[in-house]
Specification:
Length: 243
Amino acid sequence: MIRRTYQYLMSLHPDHFRQQFSDELMSTFDDASRGRGSIRLLMDGFISLLRQRLFRRSPRALSAMTAGGPTPADLHERSERLQKWARLMNCVWVLSAFPLQFAAAWLMQPGTRTASASLFYTFFPSCLFIALYGVFSRISTDEAGQLLSRATRDETVKKLAARFESFKKWSDYMGLIMIFALLAFAGIALVGPWIGRAPNGSQWLWTNLIVFSIQTVLFFAVLKQLNERAAAALQQEMAARRK
């Protein structure tokens, strides 16, 4: 099972990487699995996939640069790839709030007086993340791949600008909202007992504080850079199309 997962990760790497390193890496994995090092190599494979897909230029892009700069088609291809990864990771980040909330609740074991209150406290943070996702991702993704074929230059630039604003909002404002939420939860959890707040409510505040802390760290460690790169790629594509 672990070997198949590792082999699948290798298949997701770019073609030039697979052709050069796939056989060697699979041989290394088979040797390491005998010494119980397969889990570590599985994590290395996942990190390698992210690095190759997000931070390495393809041979086509490198040849375009040496030939005098990327063409609008090259910029569009790179922009679409970065947008795809940013949207995917944004969605994964939002959905990860559900298992994080259940894990934090299992760890803290907060109690409530009624079952309905317990459900509210359990799903409130996750619903808040979904609401934020809806606000920050209003730009439809069904236009991907249609910008080159169905729109005039001005219409294309206008659509690209709308998508640029969406990713820019993610990178510029989501982190501030997360920090504000962290401070709000921490302040209420600390001040609540002094003003007669119910202990059960305080426990749920600390539970939510754990979830928001983890999500904030993940945002600044991963998502902020991905959305910045997607916005920068869109800006380059718009500049090329205005010429």
